[in-house]
TrEMBL record:
Highest taxon of the lineage: Bacteria
Residues covered by region (Disordered): 24-49
Cited SUPFAM superfamilies: Periplasmic binding protein-like I
Residue ranges occupied by any Leucine-binding protein domain in the UniProt entry: 52-390
Similarity comment: Belongs to the leucine-binding protein family.
Any coiled-coil regions, as ranges: none
Low complexity biased stretches: 30-49
Signal peptide extent: 1-19
Name the UniProt record assigns to this protein: Leucine-, isoleucine-, valine-, threonine-, and alanine-binding protein
Keyword vocabulary terms for this entry: Signal
Length: 417
């Protein structure tokens, strides 16, 4: 009996010993596995934080809108420096920028955007100088699920009928221009003719202005469109003279402006007052005949009064031989600030789907004051300026002098998407 009990005890002891050893081994294996997993996770995290954030910028760096593209480029580079305190990195990740020239051709814009997305593997798109180029590229942002900051293209359809959730626009749109312009000249019974280039920028600009002006009681008696590459506008302007409006509202962009021919044909002497948005400095130099005109401005370096604009003006002069920032320079600056601020919110995560809810409703400081991305259509609401063109001793060209800052809520455009 004692022998039998001893055997049972021995068997049980061996069994327990094996079980304990097995548990110990499993525990060691588990510990090793967890340690390995942590090591892999740590390596991945380190790799992610050391990977640069790449931004692909599309701009007209040659051709008719070359000056706009270069203004955007100067502004974007200064904006990155300002927003990162000179480090050119955010949340421990360096920012790299790849520039591509669209040549102001939509088919080229698509080719360059595809190259940026596939070959350069950019995290963001920015651009472009032309509404036509921009509209052609919008679907790619959605296809590749990358945030695209639209700057400086203004066509309403970008954040309207062609909107997709990856599009955020720091540029103002045509309706914002229109609300500012209409406030300057429209009223009950006022007759207005419009003149614009025959493409999306012009069509959207006139459409938005017409709605705003008619809402204030004005009558649009003629809509005249010209070839955007034309240099002779005589036939277009003669039609406007024949329509006998009280005002001619002009929507224009590019170096081939109609101002000299408007002066040659003496429209103002014929009783037709001219109104328009104050353009870039090159175009302002041809607007001597329009001194005294009241209209609106998107930006002139003398108009905003804030610390960000002061920094931009001072640094731009220092970097570019005393030149001041021009019409689209603050837009490039603002696009860069928006990207950096969004990445700060995401902890450096550049994933498009992660960034969308962070960008929606985001407010940030710019050379034009505080801007906010409207949640519904991702349009940046921003200040505009009611101005009068005047000769000022400091400048050798007519400059927009501030009559009143138009607050973002005053020029908030309709939601069109």
């Amino acid at each position: 009996m004692k022998k039998r009990l001893w055997l049972i005890f021995a068997v049980l002891s061996i069994f327990l010993l094996v079980a304990c050893n097995s548990d110990s081994t499993d525990s060691d294996d588990s510990s090793t596995t967890n340690s390995a997993e942590q090591g892999e996770s740590g390596t991945t995290e380190t790799a992610a934080s050391s990977t640069p954030i790449k931004v692909g910028v599309l701009a007209s760096l040659t051709g008719a809108l070359e000056s706009y593209g270069k203004q955007t480029k100067n502004g974007f580079e200064l904006g990155l420096e300002y927003a990162t305190d000179g480090t050119m990195e955010v949340e421990g990740r360096k920012i790299e920028v790849v520039w591509e020239d669209t040549e102001t051709k939509p088919e080229v814009a698509v080719q360059k955007a595809t190259k940026l997305l596939e070959d350069d593997a950019v995290d963001f798109l920015v651009g472009s100088s032309s509404s036509g180029d921009t509209l052609a590229v919008l679907p790619l942002a959605e296809e590749y699920e990358k945030i695209m900051i639209v700057e400086p293209a203004v066509a309403d359809s970008i954040t309207g009928s062609e909107f997709n959730p990856y599009i955020f626009r720091t540029a103002r749109n045509s309706s914002q221009d229109a609300y500012a312009a209409a406030a300057a000249i429209a009223g009950e019974g006022v007759k207005i003719a419009t003149f614009a280039p025959d493409y999306s920028f012009g069509w959207d600009g006139v459409s938005a202005f017409k709605a705003a002006a008619e809402g204030l009681g004005a009558e649009i008696v003629l809509e005249e469109y010209a070839d955007p590459a034309a240099t002779d506008f005589t036939s277009n302007l003669q039609k406007i003279i024949d329509a006998k409006p009280d005002f001619l509202f002009v929507v224009w962009a590019g170096a081939n402006s109609p101002w000299n021919q408007i002066a040659d044909l003496k429209l103002q002497e014929k009783g037709i007052k001219i109104s328009t948005g104050a353009p870039d400095i090159i175009a302002l130099q041809f607007m001597e005949p329009l001194v005294g005109m009241e209209g609106f401005s998107v930006y002139h370096h003398t108009l905003p009064k804030n610390e960000v604009n002061d920094w931009l003006v001072e640094e731009h002069k220092a970097r570019f031989n005393g030149e001041v920032p021009d019409l689209f320079t603050p837009g490039g600056f603002t696009a860069a600030v928006a990207i950096v601020e969004a990445l700060k919110k995401s902890g450096g995560d550049a994933d498009g789907n992660t960034l969308i809810p962070l960008l929606e409703g985001m407010s940030f400081e710019t050379p034009k004051g505080t801007m906010t991305f409207r949640e519904e259509d991702h349009q940046a609401l921003q200040a505009m300026y009611a101005i009068r063109l005047e000769k000022v001793a400091e400048f050798d060209y007519p400059v927009p002098v501030l009559l009143r800052e138009l607050l973002p809520e005053e020029t908030e455009p309709p939601i069109l998407n």
